Amino acid sequence: MVNDRQSLDLTTFARPSGGDAVEWRISNSPVPYPDSLAAMDARVAAIATGEAPELVWLLEHPPLYTSGTSGKADDLLDARFPTFQSGRGGQVTYHGPGQRVAYVMLDLKGRRPDVRAYVASLEEWIIRTLAAFNVRGERREDRVGVWVKRPDKGPGHEDKIAAIGVRLRRWVSFHGIAINVEPDLSHFQAIVPCGVVDPRYGVTSLVDLGLPVTMADVDIALRQAFSEVFGDTAARLRETAI
Length: 242
What we know:
Distance between the termini: 45 Å
Radius of gyration: 17 Å
Helix content: 10-25%
Number of helices: 4
């Protein structure tokens, strides 16, 4: 069976010529989740009215759980950290230190107003980022996110290394992706990650795979892969305290 998401033409998400360069922002300390929601709301509104350029915001959160529009109460097994309703698509997931969250605020109306293709482009971005570390990330038609095969754990075993959850407002995207660099993987045991209950499917990280990768390494790979999928982002980069 052909994987439709793999056959999508992602080049149509390139930034239109003449538009403002995508701004990149890196927060140097963990950002409280409500603060990130408020900041995204404000920026999305400004992008929609043409008052601000598109933005990719790289950050970490303190330990917490978020529930998307398909989240179920039963997916939270142990409320050891605060839980937030996110408004994004998807189910319950964990965010915390050692996980690179990328909130992506793009004007899809000016790029390509296709939600399904946009999710596929985010998957492709992650896959290309992982490839920089010789990790083969793969899509699965029945499971959103990016997965790596783990034959060392048993036949058919796969671990999720990156999650995706998006939301659109006036065709401007927000929320985005989360790549496990070196989080405490035990924190995922308190939830049913993204509703996946099959014991053959777990959660991993780059460091768990034996790769001594830093967050700075991942950020460099993210920027390179982003330019390949979404077009040149120029050199705008700003570091912030939050």
